[in-house]
Each structure stands twice: as structure tokens, then as C-alpha cells.
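chain and backbone:
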Amino acid sequence: MFFTTFLPKLLNMSLTASVVIVFVLSLRLLLKKAPKIISYALWGIVLFRLLCPVSIESGFSLFGLLDTPVAESGTFTSRIEYVPNDIAHTEYPHIVLPVPGVADAINHTLPRGEEQRKANPLEASMAIATYAWMAGVLGMGIYAAISYIQLRKKLITASPLRENIYLADDITSPFVMGVFRPKIYLPSFLEEQEQPYLLMHEQHHIRRRDHMIKVLAFAALCIHWFNPLVWAAFLMAGKDMEMSCDEAVARNLKNPVLADYTASLLGLATGKHIIAGMPLAFGEGDTKGRIRNLANWKKPAFCVVLATVAACVILAVCLVTNPASGIRNPWVQEYTPGEAGILGNVGKEKYERISEYFAIGADQHGMAVFKDPYKAFDTMVELYAEGVELIRKENDLPPISRKNYSAYKIYGWQTTTGSKEAKAQARFITGFLDIYENSFEERK
């Protein structure tokens, strides 16, 4: 069971985070002159999406604009479900992706019907993919462990300076090491006058709990090692972490001392730095980029910072939350025509013979509704693609979606061109959408 349900959950988290990463990378370009702490904070949304499979629902979610499929997971929470958790045991497997066209291409290659119901060919593929994922996670863990051991060997001769600060001969840049009792290591070749402001930088990391955030970020990278966007996010977040720390130090330094700090960074730029992927030790990567940032840094006006922060908080809410399901009338009872309180005479057996996802129940008003309207809709689009395309072409409609289906319902029974099979499918679509619509209509 684990091998058929784990991978869809992982892919859903990774795909959801990928959408957020694209948004944050775009915003990062727009916020080029804003304080880097804002860009750094936005990466926290990505980290949340990479590690948490569920979120609360809201009408402000940006995922709602992308027609993102959601599945309820609690009273106030839901999960985004691009890949159904039970896809391996579905007669007609169907996925939805945030990139148009890609999902259709994948769906056409998936086994379906009798082949999928009897042989379950997706089970073997998902088991192999899960083992490959495990191997990747293990490889990342081994890499981190070896890197850590190699670094520890370099620190054997480190001598204490004071408190949690040490000087080491075999390192070329300052860094923080440890999680619960972090230590600061400085290169022993640093001049005494350079140490105070470089220490300010490392101490700011510790006050901000960056050493803990780095561990979580590396854990997310290990889990999602197969996603290139997560690697990009890990690197960019590391740069924003360092630059925001530089700016925090710069706010407390006067111009002559700030020039010395920048000169110290320039001196460190030629050295070989701590491996960026090491979770328990992180140093000063992209030193040249940090120098450029400090050279262009100016203390921003308070009103500009306030407006930028407010906009980013609103955006964070939009990216952290999931879209509301929109189902006003869920099924609450079995649909049995003729029984008291049941309205209409929908041939539920006809629908359920076509697909398990066309299972019909009754809502609180006794109206026929699909038990899982979203999966029913996606399955209809897949099984009746010829009829959907006929309605679209004949009436010059946009591609069907969960939001614009009304026109397809109206025109489905009016089609005049196309094959006999296509016209029969178009008429079926009208009847299907009549039932589908019941789940979302507002009734008193």
C-alpha cells in the first residue's frame, strides 16, 4: 500500500511547491532593490509547501486562479491533488498539472480500462520509482555525512577564542556549525580588526535561527532531490539569507567601517568556501554577489518598506492557503429514486457502469450529485474527449474547465456536425453537467 500511495503525495507536494517557487523567483526579480530580508522570508512559503502536505482553505488562494484540484483532508484543511492518491488502482487514471498540455500528453500514455483494472501495471512502475526516490535520499544523506566528517577533521586543531567562537587554520571563510549548540568558526588568518564585524554577521545568523532553518531546507532538498526547481530555490534562498544578514550588519555600521567589512568580504572571495549542501555547517557562499549587493545598498525609506512588506504578507496568504473546494451541496445520503425526499429519476446505474468515479449520491435537498464531483469531471473530460472537442469547435469555446463548463452544458445537445459517436458523447456531456452543476448551485 505504501508504494502506491506515498509517491502521489510526494509529487503533489513537489508540484505545489514548484508553482510557489516560480512565483517567488519572479517576485525576487521585482524586489531586486527591496531589502533582502523580504525575499528571504518569501522562501519560507516554499519550505512550508515542501514539507506540509495540507493547508487551510481560503477564497484568496492564487491556486484557485489555476483551476487547481483539491481534496478535503479535514474540517478546515485540504490538500492539492494533481495526482490522485489512488491513481495506481483507478480504472481510468487521470492527472492534472499546472503546465497546460503536459497533463494531456501524460494521460494519453497511462494504462486504462480493462488493462488497468486487471493487471494494475502502475503498481510496478510506482514501486520502482519509490525505490529510486529512496536511493536518491540515501545518496543525499551519505553526501552530507561525508562532507560533515571531512569538515570535522579540519576543525580538530581549532582553538577557542571566547564563548562559542573558535579560530581554525584550515578554513578560508567564517561559518556557523551545529544546530542546538551552534559554534562560530573564523579563519585564523583574519586580522584582529576584521573579526568584530564578521562576527556580527555570524551572530545575526544564530539570533535569526538560520542554522535551524538551513537544516529544514536541506531536509526538504533531500526529500525533493528529483525536482530541479527545488535545487534552484535552495541556492537562491541561501543567497538571500547571506545578503539579508549583510544588510542587517550594514545598518549598524558607519561608512568607514562598512568599507572595511566589504574589503574583508573581498578578501574572502578568493577562498574555497564551505560546501553549500552541508546541513550542519554553512558559510559565506557567493561572496562576490554579496559585495555587489553591499555596494548598491541604500537604506530604504520606511514607507517603501512598509508597503512592500504589506504586499508580501498578502501574497504569502495567497500562496500558503489552498483554494476552497466550492462544493456547496456534498452527497450526504444514497440516491434511490422513489424514496421519500429524493428528487428526480436519474439513472445512476448507467453512470456507475461507465466509471467508478461517476458514483451518484443525494445532497441534503435530495438532488442527485456525484459523490466526488472533481474526479467525476476529470474522468468525463478524459473519457468523452471527442464530444468535448466537438462542442468546443462547433461553438468556438475555450477549453473546458471546472469554471467554464456551463456553455458546454448548454450547447452539448445542440451539436449538428461530427460523427454519430461524437454527437452521442456531446449529448451525454449535457446530462452529465446537469448533475455536476448540482454540487455547486446555491439553494435555500
Confidence is low (pLDDT under 50) at residues 270-277. The chain is about 55% helix and 10% strand. Residues 50 and 220 are 6 Å apart (CA to CA). The chain has three domains: 2-132+318-323, 145-299, 333-438.
